[in-house]
Amino acid sequence: MTTTGAHQDTAGTPARGPWWWGRRRSAALDIGLGVLSALECAAEGAGFAGDAGLPLPVGVLFGLVVGSVLVLRRRWPIVVVLVAIAVTPAEMGYVMGFVGLYSLAACEVPRRITAALAGMSLAASFLVTFVRVRQDVAAADFETGSWYVPLVSAFMAVGLTAPPVLFGLYIGARRRLMESLRERADSLEQELSLLADQAEQRAQLARTEERTRIAREMHDVVAHRVSLMVVHAAALQAVALKDPQKAVRNAALVGEMGRQALTELREMLGVLRSDPVSPPPPPAARRGAARPAAVGPAATAASAAEAAGGEDGPCLRDVEELVEQSRAAGTVVELLVSGDAREYAPEVEQTAYRVVQEALTNVHKHAAGSKVVVRLAHRGDEVAMQVENGPCDAAAADADLPSGGNGLVGMRERVTALGGVFVSGPTDAGGFRVSAVLPATT
User: Quick one: which of 89, 102, 125, 227 has the fewest CB in 10 Å?
Assistant: First the structure.
């Protein structure tokens, strides 16, 4: 006969292997209790053999066998209690009954079974005690009231049954509470590990997005300035001998483009090198709570993006200067503005400027010498921009400028990140058109 939970020792450790003891000290304790119970039952069996007229060795051997059953208290506590109840009329097995009831109440046996066996033990102890006390009172010729024998019997029966049952119930409840707390701790540890993994993933995603943003910003800055420098350098080479004064002007423009490129690069690298000041931790963090995940590289990246997209970045007012630079490089550019100009969010103005800048850069790379039309439209809740170039002579279009193929991809990423719409492609006239619409607010 086995019961649920009977395979656990007093510390709640599950049994391992063919034996029912989880630890050596549990086995040593049960064997020690078994030896003690066997010696007690052997001594009481000797007296029982004398009263019953049995040979003394039989009584001692019977007591040893009965008492040793206590070793099974962790595996079969019901068997131990039943044996203790069975030998109660022989007035033996007190240690076995006491420990067996405790083990039964402490394990995961259904409470109705525990109550039934505890009631049987109580009744058996009461009956045996009642008979023994009445015999002793009659033998001593001691006058007592009718209440004396039942009261003493009840007191003895409750004293032998209630303490081990109540103590076992307390230990079992405490063990279950500890198991519940241990499970909750394991669950919380798993949740914290999952949250840490998610935070690491978010930080990795933030770093990846920031690297993409920085690469896109560097591409926009370097590609445009260097493209203009290459165009001016080609013009300088063409007119150096024929028109020295124009060559000087082109050289000055090349130098100016280079200085502007270096200035923008220094500003961007300065933002990346800046060490943002971390805000003071909230009270929960000062008390030992987990720190926010945006500390370290992710915080630096976020501050860099904030600084790069702030008020110091390019805006729509700079588009006219951008067009003038392309005109100075010899490109015919027409700027058309419709609607009332107004200020937008910094990230909207910077994105609009970069779209126009990258589109003009692509013209210098792939369609040098073609006519370009730049359109800006200020609408109620959005701003639209379009850069369209016409067909060009293939010989004039070859500016020998490398292309990484990321210009259009970067423009699309910028626009869609703000919830806008981006369209690009060739025109029916043989040119190329880049169009974007950005919401006025993000």
Answer: 89
Strands 372-378 and 333-338 come out as parallel
Residue 432: what are its φ and ψ, rounded to 5°? Answer: -145, 145
**Which residues of the chain register pLDDT less than 50?**
1-15, 17-18, 276-311, 397
User: What HEC string does the chain produce?
Assistant: CCCCCCCECCCCCECCCCCCCCCHHHHHHHHHHHHHHHHHHHHHHHHHHHHHCCCHHHHHHHHHHHHHHHHHCCCCHHHHHHHHHHCHHHCCCHHHHHHHHHHHHHCCCCHHHHHHHHHHHHHHHHHHHHHHHHHHHHHCCCCCCCCHHHHHHHHHHHHHHHHHHHHHHHHHHHHHHHHHHHHHHHHHHHHHHHHHHHHHHHHHHHHHHHHHHHHHHHHHHHHHHHHHHHHHHHHHHHHCCCCHHHHHHHHHHHHHHHHHHHHHHHHHHHHHHCCCCCCCCCHHHHCCCCCCCCCCHHHHHHHHHHHHCCCCCCCHHHHHHHHHHHHHCCCCEEEEEECCCCCCCHHHHHHHHHHHHHHHHHHHHHCCCCCEEEEEEECCCEEEEEEEECCCCHHHHCCCCCCCCCHHHHHHHHHHHCCCEEEEEECCCCCEEEEEEEECCC
Confirm whether pTM is higher than 0.90.
no
> What's domain 315-442's superfamily in CATH?
Histidine kinase-like ATPase, C-terminal domain (3.30.565.10)
Domain ranges across the chain? 24-144, 315-442
Amino acid at 92: M
Asked if residue 268 lies in contact with residue 221, where contact means CB atoms within 8 angstroms, the answer is yes
Please report the pLDDT score of residue 274 as a whole number.
56
